[in-house]
Amino acid sequence: MASTETTTSDTPDAQPETRPDAREDARPDARPDAREAPKENGADLAGLEAGLDALETQTAQRTAFGRKLLSKALPPIVAVALVLVLWQLAYHFKVKEHYLLPSPADVGRTLQEKWLEGTLLDYVWTSLSRGALGFLISVAIGTPLGLIVARVKVVRAAIGPILSGLQSLPSVAWVPAAIIWFGLSDATIYAVVLLGAVPSIANGLVAGVDQVPPLYLRAGRVIGATGLNGVRHVLLPAALPGYIAGLKQGWAFSWRSLMAAELIVNAADLGVGLGQLLEQGRELQDMSWVLSAILLILIVGIGIELLIFAPIERRVLRSRGLLARG
Amino acid sequence: MAATLTEAAVDKSTTASATDPAYAARISHVSKSFGRPGAQQLVLDDITIDVAPGEFVTLLGASGCGKSTLLNLVAGLDKPSAGEIEVPGGRPALMFQEHALFPWLTAGKNIELALKMRGLAKSERRDEAERLLEIVRLKGAYGKRVHELSGGMRQRVALARAIAQDSQLLLMDEPFAALDAITRDVLHDELTRIWRETNLSVLFVTHNVREAVRLAERVVLLSSRPGRIAREWEVGIPQPRRIEDSAVADLSIEITEQLRGEIRRHGQH
Ligand SMILES: Nc1ncnc2c1ncn2[C@@H]1O[C@H](COP(=O)(O)OP(=O)(O)O)[C@@H](O)[C@H]1O
Ligand SMILES: [Mg+2]
């Protein structure tokens, strides 16, 4: 990029000749000298601009990793410790009989036994793989569904309200219907998971699309991103934060629905998941067992959210400057 | 214009061949109303403006007089209620008051998206984007996210993206209105420089009289409710100008008087 003085001072200006005469008459001597006589030194302008840029760009201040970890991890650790202490106290003062309220250590011992039997990871894996598969199928169905509902007026009018209504229907309500349709089978479990997760994912995408600033769509049209190009390069990326929020909620719904289904759909030929484990504990009236299963369900649910969804969401938001640093 | 800017500047006299249309945009007898039939609000009334190839025209008017509406019509984002708009050079580029850059892309990728939409081969996009960033003097900004840039830098990236469309006509809707005075002043110089080095025609909308005079070869004043062309001025002051130049001030005073007169008329009934 050459600076102005090399390009403009000797630029022949023949523009007026290409104009209609009427325009010439209307604008006597407007053009010939209008582009001559450079006043501003190009290098000066560049320097001025560089200075402004430097002044206006704030340098990001990074806090040390260790401190960040500490400030993030400490509060939840303290909270969990507090719960354990209260629990232990309740046990100590026998708020309930010990077979009704075992101590944290009892629950830990039960978990340890199952671990030593080598079955613990199998239970977790059975549920987790069902949950993951159900979630992925829900994504595959919910995404196009959400997109169509968001973009096609008639479809929206027709099924938009139903879709958001479905979200408030506890998916456990589907279990009896699913059992009648599919019997005590995997199909029943997946049907319940899908009915729980699909509406939530679709609704998330609809909300994401609705929140896209119209300015982006107009800017997209101006640069020629229309039709499918507009969807791919503007609409979808712009709706991504809402979509991810929907996915996160979709996972929570998948997991919940799965547990509801597993609790009820209990057959010998089906693998034993965490829900079935919970039900077995109830049949044996073994409170430590029940509490262990609840704990595992909680840990898996939170773990997936923390390990998978939270980092993705944070990355997306941060890259768009939508996340306060710190 | 896909060639380097310096070449384009030198070629300026020869590129306008005899077959080229004599205008970069022709707005003839355009009217626009909003609202449902029966309760219509006439926003633009019989607007006729020609923008010559390579010309810099500013459209000046009070807030709400229909400037953005008119630019949207020229950009093809909306259709006029009456009249015709011809833009022979293809889809015009449009710059908004807000930068309208996509926050999920880096500065460079924002420009590359425009290049992609224009049909430039993938292998050439990166270099072309770097070149356009250099034109707006943002050489190191390729990998920067939009939120990492200052307001002035964002508008320069937006300008680079607009130029990337390789359109003959650049529409600008109060692009510097949200910037501080110092930055705005620098961007005026920058825009003037880029305009002089390219064969772009610019239709620039503003409510700022001095800005209009500082930039334009021709100032078109719009009245309000409905928006009509009140008057035009040729600005014969040689470029580059400064916004403080006495010639700029003199013409600004004259135009401001007229503008105030237009506004006053609305208070009289
Ligand atoms: N889509 C629309 N529907 C109804 N009225 C509109 C619409 N767009 C603009 N207007 C009206 O048109 C007038 C001009 O608006 P606009 O072009 O944005 O003015 P300016 O850009 O000059 O400030 C305003 O009174 C505004 O309320
Ligand atoms: Mg406006």
How does this structure look, described?
The complex is a heterodimer of chains A (326) and B (269). Chain A has 13 helices and no strands. In chain A, helix 6 (120-151) runs antiparallel to helix 7, helix 9 runs antiparallel to helix 11 (227-264) and helix 11 runs parallel beside helix 12 (274-283). Chain A is an all-alpha fold and 326 residues long. Chain A has helices at residues 4-8, 21-26, 42-56, 65-92, 104-117, 120-151, 153-167, 175-182, 186-210, 214-222, 227-264, 274-283, 287-319. In chain B, strands 5-6-7-3-8-9 form a six-stranded mixed β-sheet, sandwiched between helices. A three-stranded antiparallel β-sheet of chain B has the order 2-1-4, with helices on one face. Chain B is built from eight helices and nine strands. Chain B is 39% helix and 21% strand. The relative contact order of chain B is 0.17. Classes of the chains: A mainly alpha (326), B alpha/beta (269). At the A-B interface, helix 1, helix 3, helix 10 and helix 11 of A face helix 1, helix 3, helix 4, helix 5 and helix 6 of B. Adenosine-5'-diphosphate binds next to helix 2 of chain B. Chain A: It is a multi-pass membrane protein.
Topology:
The complex is a heterodimer of chains A (326) and B (269).
Chain A (H helix, E strand, L loop, with lengths): L3 H5 L12 H6 L15 H15 L8 H28 L11 H14 L2 H32 L1 H15 L7 H8 L3 H25 L3 H9 L4 H38 L9 H10 L3 H33 L7
Chain B lengths: L4 H11 L9 E10 L6 E11 L4 E5 L6 H9 L6 E5 L6 E3 L11 H12 L3 H14 L15 H14 L4 E5 L7 H17 L3 E6 L2 H7 L2 E5 L6 E6 L11 H22 L2
Parallel strand pairs in B: 3-7, 3-8, 5-6, 6-7
Antiparallel strand pairs in B: 1-2, 1-4, 8-9
The structure holds adenosine-5'-diphosphate (ADP) and magnesium ion.
Magnesium ion binds next to helix 2 of chain B.
